[in-house]
Design goal:
Largest sheet: 4 strands, antiparallel
Shape: elongated
Number of helices: 9
Number of strands: 4
CATH class of the largest domain: Mainly Alpha
Helix content: 40-55%
Radius of gyration: 30 Å
Number of domains: 2
CATH topology of the largest domain: DNA polymerase, domain 1
Distance between the termini: 113 Å
């Protein structure tokens, strides 16, 4: 019996029965009963998607495809962590990418690179770059120490976060903790240094910065030392009144 050939950009991969015909698409029930053999073997699903069964009983999803006349393979992970339905969705996405003229394998590698960059591009890493910039510019030791101390407070709160995950509320929560201790000038200077890190990130074209226009609200709320309702806090008014009284001529 002669069976039709499966061709195109996604060649069919399947174990053959005694008739030589490819078997029907996979099901979860079929996958679960696949037994290991002395050597790895492949069982096809559809449109180039197949599962490789290894001697160690691993069942790994792959997609065979062709681009520019070359045969390539794309990995989707292991079953059952990646289920049949998910594997088919990933296969369909790869087919769509290929139809657009792009190599799905190359696209996947580029996404991995971007993901690694995002994970490694934390606020702490960018704060260090900002501090190192100050060293190269020849800032005084006392100034450098002050900057490190200020940014150390921010790093303690959100240093491990990727910069793309840092929002105005993230920063404001950190500044409010400093402000709550009555250290309003410190909060203002910390805000300025965080802003400096933000400017550095944008100047070098690094991936993303999550503050956006909301950063203005953070600047104003700390600069003016106002409560959530927009009124000057009692502590600030009290401190300012005390300073004015102490400087009054009658106190001299």
């Amino acid at each position: 019996m002669e069976c039709p050939r499966i061709g195109g950009a996604f060649g069919g991969v399947a174990e053959t029965r005694k008739t030589g015909c490819p078997q029907m698409p996979l099901s979860d029930a079929k996958i679960r009963i696949l037994k290991p053999k002395a050597k790895p073997y492949k069982v096809g699903d559809q449109d180039g998607l197949y599962i490789t069964v290894t001697p160690s009983v691993s069942r790994l999803w792959h997609l065979k495809y062709r681009i520019d006349g070359r045969e390539k393979r794309l990995s989707f992970g292991a079953y059952p962590s990646v289920g049949l339905a998910t594997a088919r969705k990933l296969k369909d996405q790869a087919r769509s990418t290929l139809a657009d003229g792009s190599d799905p394998g190359a696209v996947k590698q580029e996404q991995k690179r971007v993901d690694r960059e995002i994970r490694g591009n934390t606020f702490a890493a960018q704060a260090k770059a900002f501090i190192d910039k100050g060293r190269r510019e020849g800032k005084a030791d006392a100034t450098k120490a002050k900057i490190e101390w200020l940014l150390g407070m921010a790093c303690a709160d959100f240093g491990a976060l990727p910069i793309t995950a840092i929002t105005s509320p993230t920063v404001l929560a950190c500044l409010r903790k400093v402000e709550a201790k009555g250290n309003y000038e410190t909060a203002k200077r910390l805000r300025a240094k965080i802003g400096g890190v933000s400017l550095l990130v944008r100047s070098v074209g690094s991936t993303g910065w999550g503050l956006g226009t909301g950063w203005v609200d953070v600047v104003e709320s700390v600069r003016n030392s106002k409560d959530g309702d927009g009124t000057m806090s009692e502590r600030v008014r009290s401190n300012r009144s005390s300073r004015r009284l102490s400087q009054h001529p009658s106190r001299s």
